[in-house]
């Protein structure tokens, strides 16, 4: 009998990451910019999306994948805005995974989509570990949460490209300093682009949607130049 | 509780590795978990015990926490961190941003061959 040590050095999520890479390739081939929205439950993901799609649906072709533990409520709310929506009910699962997203994308016509929103399950921990093939992660934080949330849940803020502060209309009623919260987020990730928004008053939504439209335009331009640069 | 999903993936990796080594038994498993990976080490260890109990027994499980690195904006010192905020141990200034600490790997397995 002999003992042997085997160096494995394999990522725990290597199988999942491979599927995410396939999704990313599918989205890129179709020129789709995809945003993975992550936040605690109740931070206002669905309401922000409702306002966002109303502002953007005339100029861009949108799609949504909406995840929830149970019910299709979020998907139904978004369907009323007359855009294509696919619902994922995780049935207890605390995050969306690449397999679920890959399957739900079959229900959308990616060739007719410019901007895809993936609304993750409300949870600030687990979704940050799973690559869904998105172009970028966007983390939401509402002003009714603690200013120190980025310090308590650093993984989500470290991996996000954008922070959207939501419900800013409530700030006058709270002992919450947006500047302090943003400083905490930047302590974890200094490269975050930050938008302060209120889906109720509309504050900051023009900046947020304008920035998203800019990202879509950059993707289309790069894709166009990439294709024309071919043989 | 995504640690259960991760434990199942780790078990699948062990099974794939052992399939390459016939007539062998798992005696140790090494996993590396980054301090900023969003994974709770104790929960992962518990989930591993649960999922591995079917098919594997009597092996040693070593979960190592991998820190991240922050750089002080004031004095330039690079230092290891496991939680935010990142206070420089030399001058007390705060560092912004952290690199690394994202790891989530099966580092090694040890097997006994018959």
Task: Please explain how this structure is put together.
The complex is a heterodimer of chains A (231) and B (114). With 231 residues, chain A is an alpha/beta fold. Chain A has a single domain, classed as P-loop containing nucleotide triphosphate hydrolases (Rossmann fold). Chain A is built from 8 helices and 8 strands; from the N terminus they run βαβαβαβαββααβαβα. Chain A has helices at residues 14-29, 45-56, 73-79, 98-105, 149-152, 154-159, 178-188, 205-228, and strands at 2-11, 33-38, 62-68, 85-89, 115-119, 136-142, 162-166, 193-196. The longest helix of chain A is centred in the C-terminal third of the chain and has 24 residues, at 205-228. Chain A is globular, with a radius of gyration of 19 Å. The N and C termini of chain A lie far apart (59 Å). Chain B is of the alpha+beta class and 114 residues long. Chain B has a domain at 3-67 and 101-113: hypothetical protein PF0899 fold, CATH 3.30.2320.50. Chain B has 2 helices and 8 strands, in the order αβαβββββββ. Chain B has helices at residues 3-19, 41-52; strands at residues 24-34, 60-66, 68-71, 78-81, 86-87, 94-95, 99-100, 104-113. In chain B, the strands form 3 sheets. A 3-stranded mixed beta sheet of chain B has the order 2-1-8, covered by helices on one side. The N and C termini of chain B lie far apart (37 Å). The model of chain B has no long low-confidence stretch (mean pLDDT 93). Chains A and B meet through strand 1, helix 1, helix 6 and helix 7 of A and helix 1, strand 1, strand 6 and strand 8 of B.
CATH class of chain A: Alpha Beta
CATH T-level topology of the domain at 3-67 and 101-113 in chain B: hypothetical protein PF0899 fold
Low-confidence stretches of chain B: none
Average of per-residue pLDDT values of chain A: 94
Quick synopsis:
With 231 residues, chain A is α/β, with parallel strands linked by helices.
Could you name the key traits of this structure?
heterodimer, A: 231 residues, alpha/beta, Rossmann fold, seven-stranded parallel sheet, 8 helices, B: 114 residues, alpha+beta, hypothetical protein PF0899 fold, 8 strands, elongated
């Amino acid at each position: 009998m002999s003992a042997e040590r085997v160096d494995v050095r394999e990522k725990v999520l290597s199988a999942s990451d491979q599927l995410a890479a396939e999704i990313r390739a599918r989205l890129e081939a179709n020129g789709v910019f995809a945003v993975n929205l992550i936040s605690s439950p109740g931070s206002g993901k669905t309401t922000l999306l409702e306002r966002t799609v109303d502002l953007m649906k005339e100029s861009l072709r949108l799609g949504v994948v909406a995840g929830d533990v149970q019910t299709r409520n979020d998907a139904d709310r978004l369907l009323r805005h007359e855009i294509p929506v696919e619902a994922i009910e995780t049935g207890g699962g605390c995050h969306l995974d690449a397999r679920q997203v890959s399957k739900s994308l079959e229900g959308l016509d990616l060739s007719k989509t410019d901007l895809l929103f993936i609304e993750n399950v409300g949870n600030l921990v687990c979704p940050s570990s799973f690559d869904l093939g998105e172009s970028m992660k966007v983390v939401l934080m509402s002003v009714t949460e603690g200013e120190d949330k980025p310090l308590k849940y650093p993984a989500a803020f470290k991996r996000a490209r954008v922070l959207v502060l939501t419900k800013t209309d409530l700030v006058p009623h709270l002992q919450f300093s947006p500047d302090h919260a943003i400083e905490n987020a930047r302590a974890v990730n200094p490269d975050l682009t930050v938008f302060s928004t209120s889906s109720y008053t509309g504050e900051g939504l023009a900046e947020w949607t304008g920035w998203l439209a800019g990202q879509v335009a950059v993707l289309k331009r790069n894709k166009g130049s990439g294709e024309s640069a071919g043989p | 509780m995504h640690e259960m999903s991760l434990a199942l993936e780790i078990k699948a990796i062990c099974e794939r590795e052992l399939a390459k080594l016939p007539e062998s038994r798992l005696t140790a498993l090494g996993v590396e978990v980054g301090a900023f990976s969003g994974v709770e080490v104790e929960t992962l260890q518990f989930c591993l015990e649960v999922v591995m109990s079917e098919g594997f027994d009597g092996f040693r499980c070593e979960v190592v926490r991998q820190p991240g690195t922050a750089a002080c904006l004031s004095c330039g010192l690079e230092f290891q961190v496991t939680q935010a905020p990142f206070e420089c141990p030399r001058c007390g200034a705060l560092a912004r941003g952290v690199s690394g600490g994202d790891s989530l790997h099966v580092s090694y397995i040890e097997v006994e061959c018959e």
